[in-house]
Amino acid sequence: MNLSFKFEITEDLPETLYMRTILEKSTWFGLITVPCLKEKFGTCTHRNICQVLDSWYDPCDCPPYFVENDFPCTCPLFADEYSLHNLSFDIPAFSGVFATFAGGDYEIRLEFYDSETDQELGCLSFQISITAKGSKDSWWGKR
After folding, report:
1. 101: helix, strand or coil
2. C-alpha radius of gyration, the chain, whole number
3. pLDDT higher at 72 or 95
4. What is the model's pTM?
5. Can you list the pairs that 121-127 forms with residues at least 24 positions away whose Cβ atoms lie under 8 Å?
6. pLDDT by residue (tens digit) across 77-100?
7. How far is CA 135 from CA 10, 93, 99, in A?
8. pLDDT score, position 140
9. Euclidean distance between CA atoms 87 and 73, whole angstroms
10. Which of 126, 119, 109, 127 is nearest to 11 (CA)?
11. Is the dihedral of CA 32, 33, 37, 40 positive or negative?
12. Which end of the chain is more exposed for a tag (fewer CB within 10 A), N or C?
């Protein structure tokens, strides 16, 4: 999957940042909220975003793609305009019941909060479509 996006942070974000993701799948019945799976995927609250980023990346050794695009990989996240183009990553294959329901149209909302004040600092909403190779539409929704 390739992903391109552009966004603006209008003020420096605190290191006490947390994020809530809301993931909804479009079905014939309307939007259905995807529950949080394994505390990572679906409608979840992700605490301590800065600690997570720090555990993934060394601030002195961000991946080259991030460095080339002047995109931060650790906190602090400063006010600025950011963009990434054609960021490539793989979506893991689903098996069993997940494979049946994974494809389709989704609405995603990311909400960012300061954990000290619980104040919402911003949000980002977008839609994606996932289509498995050889998939067909089903009565559950477009796959």
Report:
1. helix
2. 17
3. 72
4. 0.75
5. 121/13, 121/14, 121/17, 122/9, 122/10, 124/7, 126/5
6. 899 998 888 777 666 666 666 666
7. 41, 14, 10
8. 45
9. 14
10. 119
11. positive
12. N
